[in-house]
Amino acid sequence: MLQMRPGCECCNVDLAPDSQDAWICSFECTFCTNCVESKLGGRCPNCGGAFSRRPTRVGGALERNPASTVRVFKPSGCAPAA
């Protein structure tokens, strides 16, 4: 089950469970569209993997399986993967 992290690891902008602006890598590192496109070059700075849009979770599914409240914020690591 996806954790649905609540914010961008790079800029800390809020990313609601129904956000169309959230991107994840295969390890669920979570970033916003702006950071993915303008800072990260489409690659996860943590693992070097590609991003996919994070699926949304709404309604009963969100009630039964709430999104994470744990923020991961690493502004010092917000650079394109080498």
Automatic annotation (TrEMBL):
Pfam families listed in its UniProt record: DUF1272 (PF06906)
InterPro entries listed in its UniProt record: DUF1272 (IPR010696)
This protein's name: DUF1272 domain-containing protein
